[in-house]
Amino acid sequence: MQESESKASARLIVESVERVLEEGRLAALVTLIEAPTGVGAKLLVESSAKRIGSLGDSELDEVAAGHVAKFLESRQEARTLDVKELAAELPQWHGARLLFERIQPELRLVICGAGHVGASLARLASFIGYRATIIDDRAEFVTRDRFPDVRIELMAANSWSEAVRQVVGNGHGVAVAVVTRGHNEDEECMRALVTTNPDYVGLIGSKRRTTIVIDRLRNSGANEEQLKDIRAGGVAYDYEEAWLGVASIAAPVLCNRRPVGALSIATVNGGSLTQYSGPIRNAAARISSGGVPLAV
Length: 296
What we know:
Rossmann fold; 2 domains; 41% helix; elongated
């Protein structure tokens, strides 16, 4: 009886983890890895505080669940902790240890535009572990000759808006960079994005260009709530300075999802890129100027 209950609990945890990933949600899986009894027991705690499973003790469940928000905020992939660090009031568990593991969908970056900035950004995203998808309405720009890395997904769009909606889906766990060749293409992508609510939207270009696009969205009925989270800014970059465009997008996207240590993030004041330094700039510059060409 106990064995069948254990199997049912394990199956429920697996199914719940799969659901979290499919729906683009965030959770922590807590496992009892060292204890006098119950080793292997698991508790899944979603960012919404919903719980599935148990560590075998309701008080221990409360302690573990209470630490999940702090763990997720740290953006660590995994961490082990002694229960006595978390709950001195539970002496019966002072010899026990818990493993906290971050459960989140594969990091995704959708790039609208396969010019020199978009191409470099796709290569950088793949290099640092993102699942990258690059979209362009020019089929000759999204070929395996230009992007031999099979981890970069390619889409030739008949319609920008339809392609964006298809790739972004419900928006959970997705960052989007709009780096197309013109105002009209930017606007078509942005119209789709304000209805899909991805985690991050970056619109790069001169202050004039980004202002035109956002004003058009506003005038066509987009409300301020939909527009307030758009990260718009940067400048127009030529081929040789493509790393600036790459860094202006990659830095805030990465800082939104992972701990970055000494990375100095760009600040955008009135739409102008004012500062970049650190490993993002170095990696972007290396990809832009090294053995991997920006464009073919």
